[in-house]
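From: lab user (bench 3)
To: helpdesk
Subject: output format question, protein + beta-D-galactopyranuronic acid

Hello, I'm new to running complex predictions and I'm not sure whether the block I got back is the full result or only part of it. Here's what I submitted:
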Amino acid sequence: MKLLTCFVCSFFILSMSPILSQTNYEESKVPSFEVPDPLLTFSGYKINSAKNWEKVRRPELLRFFENDIYGKIPKSLKIDSYTILEQDNNVLNGKAKRKQVELTFKNNGKTLSYTILLYLPKNKVKAPVFLGYNFYGNHTITEDKAVIISSAWANNNESFGIKNNTLTEESRGKRTNRWAVEKILDAGYGLATIYYGEVDPDKNDFSDGIHSLLYQQGQNQPKPAEWGSIAAWSWGMVRALDYFEKDPDIDASKVIAFGHSRLGKTSLWAGATDKRFAGVISNNSGCGGAALSKRKFGETISVINERFPHWFCDNFNQYGDHEEALPVDQHQLLALIAPRPLYVASAEEDQWADPRGEFLSAHYATQVYNLYGKKGIETMEMPKVNEPIHNTVSYHIRTGKHDVTDYDWENYIKWANTFVK
Ligand code: GTR
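Helpdesk reply: Thanks, we reran it on our side. This is the complete output you should expect:
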């Protein structure tokens, strides 16, 4: 049965997608390419101070990523109201307070709500917080029976018991392995998580989610330079931060944006667009996240846009198989986070996300951190597996696959203790 499933699976993948079988996994086949200089403006002016970086270069790079990669948010929209749906000040064996807070947004006669699940260290007055989305609902990150199951659309997943695009009790606690809740609390941090599908369902359909609240009359999908889903999810993190500023239990000046994979692309974009995030973690974010696009190793722009046409703005399509035409690369996205602490993490078996491309990106972003007198990834030599480099810009590659593990969290906590707390 197992063999049969594997055979059927690989047959399906290969026959469905010739592009996947053409994926480059060989370093010798990485094309030679020029790494765009973060400190050289589009008009050829060399930046040599943090002041000029912020005044001239940072804004033009941000604009480029907005217009050509993730897409612009058409207009600002504030929280209409928030409701504490539930609170218990003595949970997880007396370790934590739990809150479930619903944020509501209104525009165009439409309403969107999403719920933040918060675990906060019980005896802390104002806690620093890790904020990150989850893939299958807040109730999957814990066995805690009180966590509300979202009624938002979800991708079907048999092993999680998700049928008819509906989340169920069956998946409660199924993702506890990815969320080191106790370790986070023991270190004096809170954890805030949101089911990403509540902000924008992860499908190529722009009739729902937050996009639909901000259309002009007659519009039913974003314009070519307007936001895709990654920008929408990032927006949701930014609005959560607005709420944190009102919550007396949270230190809103110490919120770290965390994300894995597509949600790592999301945490990077959130950190780039909102300087209030005190730090950013990219866990295995790969193509369109931390990895350099021009290396064409593992997932590429054309592949990601074909498989997930809704993630980026339509303007990004022009660079599929034309990476050389891109005047930027992802290290400049990382540089937009400077001088705030940044952690890029890879996994040895996650070649699809191009660990070396993620590492080099952190290295090339470092020159911007250096302008502020901060240390990053100064070397071009990749560290060995499980030998992290901890600086304001940190990096590790761990053994194992595309995932979030306790090892990752232990390192994020160590780094946060030194550079964020
Ligand atoms: C993959 C996608 C990656 C990554 C991943 C995930 O299929 O190709 O870019 O985002 O999904 O989010 O799990």
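A quick orientation on your result: The longest strand covers residues 96-107. Let us know if anything else is unclear.
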